Fold Rad60/SUMO-like domain-containing protein.
Amino acid sequence: MKQNITSNTNSNADSNPIPMFAHIILVYQEKKKIYNVEVDLNLQVKDLIMEFLPVLLPGDQQQVVLQLNKQTLEPKNKLKDYDIKKGTELQILLTTLGGKQSDL
């Protein structure tokens, strides 16, 4: 299932960087869903995750993680820190707090 979502939340509103938008692909393997998303690359990873929480509905003991080429993206880093461009594919994973990582 493909779903288009536009993300424009800016966690760093004080400095007002110039928006740099790119279409990326988020893959939620376990549910066999693909999300085509337009995001501002100035967003922090945690802001993108927060926007997807209502869609993903993680359990109380689960945490949403994004990976690029099997590298976990740090929540406080910005998307542009990972050289994300148009068409970049990110994996959505849910981790169980206190447990091992589960590929979703």
User: Anything to note?
Assistant: The CA atoms of residues 10 and 92 lie 21 Å apart. The helical segments are 45-56. Strands lie at 2-6, 21-28, 33-40, 62-68, 71-72, 89-96, 101-102. Residues 45-56 form the longest helix (12 residues).
